[in-house]
């Protein structure tokens, strides 16, 4: 009998994907590898070069456990494996485009207020484009041609560093934003899909075991526990969320049943353990991250400097780029509302309203300096 299904587990180093890993191992315990058909399940984790080293160590720990427990392993995927994504060919395209565009004047209309509503009406097909444009008297921003020395400096920098997250930001000429979250897609989803695509193209169906729970956010709650995607080859891709109705406590509990430790970042005050730091980090977590990982802060500061040199706006202005987008931290209104990592950390150490240093925060910092950092998990792991 030919097998037509390949199961995949996505491992992020967080508690939810770890819970799914445990569920898959439990299924093997009950029914053997045959429970997954003729093909043993595969496990994928993406390393985008912006992960916290503790998370990478934790994935290595899970890999070791999985090998010993059922003889399977976790495959590490990277955007660097995908042709044309962050490789020399992608940078060659970017260099050619930058040479062409930066040497010319750039005009951009900043549509505002009622004009934005008319544009939305045109996009929705309720008015004609000419009608929208005729009523537009919005300001036109004119960016003069970029001086040759800045173009030459950007061209020299535009070569792969081998770090997917940084390379992706350099290719975009900016860091991702909350509405343009290309980091997840380009450094995680596409590299994982790159491993699945040949199977789907060959007509093999794929079942993705995903660690998403409804109570994480209203957006997640709207997702179905089982979702079907059809590929042109006729193959099916099933997105299966086996812990959809679970609480965070349930997710921690299954790992404990298997004697597995949790990602140590949870006991350091982090509620999420992905990138270091995520562009959508919370104020409190930003403060903890900066306190615990000064070397990571230095790395992000250097990335902000590098990305600023290949971004038209910041290269001309001579200002750093900002990893954190405007909705995450209040920034400088003169700089599109963005704040550099140092300004964002300064803000994270202020009390409500972002103005005064809180006495409690001051005490927390002194405690950390004098006695080391204390355990303060948001999940009640530390008693
Ligand atoms: S964890 Fe945050 S920064 Fe990292 S890929 Fe996801 S959204 Fe982007």
TrEMBL record:
It comes from the Bacteria. Pfam families: PAPS_reduct. InterPro entries: PAPS_reduct_dom, Rossmann-like_a/b/a_fold. Residues 206-279 form the Phosphoadenosine phosphosulphate reductase domain. GO terms for molecular function: catalytic activity. This is Phosphoadenosine phosphosulphate reductase domain-containing protein. It comes from Acidomonas methanolica NBRC 104435.
């Amino acid at each position: 009998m030919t097998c037509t299904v390949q199961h995949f587990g996505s491992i992020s180093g967080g508690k939810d994907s770890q819970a799914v890993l445990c569920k898959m191992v439990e299924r093997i315990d009950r029914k053997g590898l045959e429970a997954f058909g003729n093909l043993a399940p595969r496990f994928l984790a993406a390393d985008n070069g912006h992960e916290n080293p503790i998370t990478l160590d934790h994935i290595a720990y899970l890999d070791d456990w999985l090998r010993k427990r059922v003889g399977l392993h976790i495959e590490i995927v990277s955007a660097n494996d995908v042709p044309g994504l962050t490789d020399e060919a992608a940078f060659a395209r970017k260099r050619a485009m930058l040479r062409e565009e930066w040497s010319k004047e750039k005009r951009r209309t900043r549509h505002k207020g009622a004009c934005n509503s008319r544009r939305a009406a045109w996009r929705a097909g309720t008015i004609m484009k000419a009608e929208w444009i005729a009523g537009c008297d919005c300001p036109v921003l004119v960016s003069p041609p970029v001086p040759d020395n800045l173009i030459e400096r950007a061209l020299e920098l535009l070569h792969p560093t081998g770090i997917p997250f940084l390379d992706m930001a350099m290719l975009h000429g900016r860091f991702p934003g909350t509405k343009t979250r290309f980091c997840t897609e380009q450094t995680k989803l596409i590299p994982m899909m790159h491993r699945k695509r040949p199977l789907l193209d060959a007509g093999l169906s794929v079942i993705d075991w995903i660690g998403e729970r409804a109570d994480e956010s209203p957006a997640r709650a709207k997702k179905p526990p089982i979702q079907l995607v059809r590929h042109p080859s006729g193959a099916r891709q099933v997105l299966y969320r086996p812990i959809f109705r679970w609480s965070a406590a349930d997710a921690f509990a299954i790992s404990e049943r298997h004697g597995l430790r949790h990602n140590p970042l949870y006991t350091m005050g982090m509620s999420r353990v992905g990138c270091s730091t995520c562009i959508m980090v919370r104020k409190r977590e930003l403060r903890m991250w900066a306190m615990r990982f000064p070397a990571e802060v230095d790395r992000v500061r250097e990335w902000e400097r590098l990305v600023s040199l290949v971004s038209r706006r910041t290269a001309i202005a001579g200002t750093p780029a900002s990893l954190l987008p405007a909705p995450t931290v209040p920034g400088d209104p003169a700089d599109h509302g963005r704040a550099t990592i140092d300004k964002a950390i300064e803000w994270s150490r202020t009390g409500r309203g972002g103005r005064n240093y809180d006495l409690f925060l001051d005490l927390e910092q002194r405690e950390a300096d004098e006695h080391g950092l204390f355990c303060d998990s948001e999940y009640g792991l530390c008693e």
